[in-house]
Predict the structure.
Amino acid sequence: MQIRGLIGQIDFQKAAIFLIWLFHVSGILGIIYGDSQWFVSATPINLSLSFVLLLFALRATPKVYWVVLASFLAGMVAEGLGVNYGWIFGHYEYGDSLGLKIAGVPWLIGVNWAILVVCTAAIASDFFDHLLAKAILGVGLMLLLDAVIEPMAPVLDFWVFDGGTAPMQNYMGWALVAFPLHLIFHALRLKVEIQYTHHLFLLQVLFFTVLLLQINTLKDAL
């Protein structure tokens, strides 16, 4: 039974990895060469699918769901304080591309916080054994992705900061919120032995990097 279950888990991983590659690559091509506005509007579907597949992929490590929940709630609260009071990240507001909002914050932003914490923590676990080193690397990976996304966010109607550019406070805020979440993940000695997390993070970096290279074209198309 254990062998059969392991085979099923591997088969699911392969299918899940194939699906996220299909959706992200289709999104890149569609935004650049197709109906840009339609593909941008489909972002919530892509992110929701990635999250659902992640939840299923994590079945072998059920304790990690507590980190998923903590990351979602921490992200939503922190973003709510940012949007409504300018705390933590600076003064900004969300557009309509990410869908339904709670107190001005799209619920998918909380989902994305959960995705990024789990994925980057899983990647960091492959490089270091020391808790602090893993937490620092995980936070660094999250900041790397945020740095790539920020120039594209206003173009895609995700969010926009007062003045049009994300301040240094934004990146410091990300580190402030993400660091304790990574410490919790590693303090619980969670080991996510799936490659789905690695592929999902890589695809997010690839997706926004490609779009960033086409930013001038997209400004005219959107």
